[in-house]
Amino acid sequence: MQRNIAKYIDHTLLNPDATQENIDNLINEAIEYTFKSVCVHPSWVKYCAQKLVNTEVAVCTVVGFPLGAQTIETKQFEAEDAMAKGATEIDMVINIGRLKSADYTYIEREIKSLVEVTRDKALLKVIIETALLSDDEKIAVLKIARNHQVDFVKTSTGFATGGATVADIKLMKDIVGDSVQIKASGGIRTLNDFQQMTQAGATRIGASAGIAIMHEINQTDNK
Predict the structure, then answer these.
(1) How many Å apart are CA 167 and CA 147, to the nearest integer?
(2) What is the DSSP string of 6-38?
(3) How far is residue 105's CA from residue 98's CA, in Å, rounded to a whole number?
């Protein structure tokens, strides 16, 4: 059970003050529990990729993080640079202000450009920052992401006013169906949180509390 659950988790450390010691701990924990990936800031990608050679753990990084307000060209460069340094998963924040301005043409161009940059090189997860969006805005961006065949849509950065909710995961699943996977992130701290998100349709979980979740599984298994 523990190994199966670990394969859902992107073991995440995106604190601005994360040190090399913190990153080393993240890497060692990811190897020990065989988490799906480590998710780190771009400056740590090359280091993590070198440390994780010949392991089952992927290197995930963030682009346009956490506000999403960078230009499309900047996001393209960030993704290309990260992949060159060893990232195989890219979590890109959409331009939230453009979406809320109903500039769907811009959002479509942004997502399409990142799909083209990452195609056959890395998984692309599109962060829509659900806490800041109306349901109509969520539906609009989810349809664009689905139509351009992104690999994942993702709820949150964890840096906004809220994180993943079961209602949002269900809405995302209704729109993208089985054609796009769903990553839930932000505020997922317990085994119960994990189970609620996966039961609603999430196939990946971004969490800084991965170890706590694994310890909770151990306690459950030992009862």
Answers:
(1) 22
(2) HTTEEEEE--TT--HHHHHHHHHHHHHHT-SEE
(3) 9
Give the other-Cβ count within 10 Å of 134's Cβ: 9
Beta carbons of 27 and 1 less than 8 angstroms apart: no
**Domains by residue range for the chain, with CATH:** 2-221 (3.20.20.70)
Residue 186: both structure tokens together: 């932000």
3-state secondary structure 155-194: CCCCCCCCCCCHHHHHHHHHHHCCCCEEEEECCCCCHHHH
- Catalytic site positions: 91, 154, 183
Phi, psi of 151 (to 5 degrees): -80, -40
What whole-number distance in Å separates Cα of residue 141 and Cα of residue 186?
A: 19
Whether residue 35 contacts residue 6, with contact meaning beta carbons closer than 8 Å, is answered with yes
Residue 3 has pLDDT above 70, yes or no: no
Looking at residue 1, what is its pLDDT?
53
In whole angstroms, give the CA distance from residue 143 to residue 9. Answer: 25
Average pLDDT over residues 162-180: 98
Q: State how far the Cα of 52 lies from the Cα of 132, in Å rounded to an integer.
A: 35
Angle at 142 (CA atoms; ends 71, 39), nearest 5 degrees: 60
For residue 223, what pLDDT is reported? 59
Q: What predicted TM-score, i.e. pTM, was given to this entire model?
A: 0.96
Give tens-digit pLDDT for 55-105: 999 999 999 999 999 999 999 999 999 999 999 999 999 999 999 999 999
